[in-house]
Write a structure and sequence with these properties.
It comes from Roseibium album. This is Transposase. It is a single chain. Helices cover 75% and strands 0% of the residues. The chain contains three helices and no strands. By secondary structure, it is mainly alpha-helical. It is rod-shaped. It folds into two domains: 33 residues; 41 residues.
């Protein structure tokens, strides 16, 4: 078959091995897959947005704590 199609036997065996390994993982419940380029871009943007929200909230909390200490609003 490889000779007829002009493919290297090693390439065929590598593809065959990868295919069988992927099938075993899928049957074992490993549903991870390679994300598409658009999915990766979207997930990266969501990640950046969430990190920005966390940073803003951390800054607000820090400022609130400092203002409470400065106002004497701390523990007595």
């Amino acid at each position: 078959m490889c000779r007829r199609e002009g493919s290297a036997e090693s390439l065929y065996y590598n593809w065959s091995k990868e295919f069988l390994e992927a099938g075993k993982k899928r049957l074992a419940g490993d549903t991870a897959r390679a994300a598409t380029s658009d999915e990766v871009k979207t997930l990266r943007q969501v990640s950046r947005d969430l990190k920005e929200v966390v940073a803003e909230q951390a800054l607000e909390l820090r400022l609130l704590k400092k203002s409470m200490i400065g106002d004497g609003g701390g523990e007595e």
